[in-house]
Recover the amino acids of this structure.
């Protein structure tokens, strides 16, 4: 399972995140059906550092020892 996170504080940012998730065939880290034990790849969109929700997602990914890949839009 591929997980994606990124900035999500505005409607435009959430739209960009949804669009990129569709392109990558990924689920959003904020989805309620994510099983972190099944995650095989974790991607972050540019700007994730300024979003508290995305920062928390990255913290969880790091705790699980997942490699984190940056995605540029």
């Amino acid at each position: 399972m591929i997980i994606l996170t990124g900035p999500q504080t505005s409607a435009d940012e959430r739209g960009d995140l949804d669009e990129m998730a569709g392109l990558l065939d990924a689920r959003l880290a904020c989805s309620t059906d994510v099983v972190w034990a099944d995650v095989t790849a974790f991607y972050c969109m540019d700007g994730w550092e300024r979003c508290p929700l995305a920062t928390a997602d990255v913290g969880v990914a790091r705790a699980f020892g997942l490699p984190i890949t940056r995605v540029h839009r």
